[in-house]
Design goal:
Blueprint: E1 2-3, H1 16-27, H2 40-73, E2 76-77, E3 107-108, E4 111-112, H3 113-124
Antiparallel strand pairs: 1-2, 3-4
Helix pairs in contact: 1-2
Length: 130
Amino acid sequence: MNFLNPIVFWLLGFILVPIIIHFINQYNSKKLRFSTVRFLKTLESSSIRRFRLKELLLLFIRIIIIILLIVLFSRPVTKGFLPDWISSNQETMSLFILDNSASMSKSNDDLSNVDQIKSNAIAILPSINP
């Protein structure tokens, strides 16, 4: 598998952001004083474990979302890596959009800007694979 924009993988450092937020939220917890201690054992075993599991699951989901977004922005290409029935072998199209406004009618040398851009686009066409 190839990536058309592999420089985006430098953004994987942003995985540390939810981890740091997770640890900061652990220190900002409120402490409650109970008059009796007999309920602490049941509270500790059931509620606290479930709450910690939910926090870890939320942290894992946030990290996975960041990784998936980074992989999405890196534009993966699977042509030639997977069998033909899985990979997309669709034809690609190239589109040239030329500006035909009044500002492009200004001429440099003997050709206008529009004519220069048209000739540049025509020069690029042979380099594009059919």
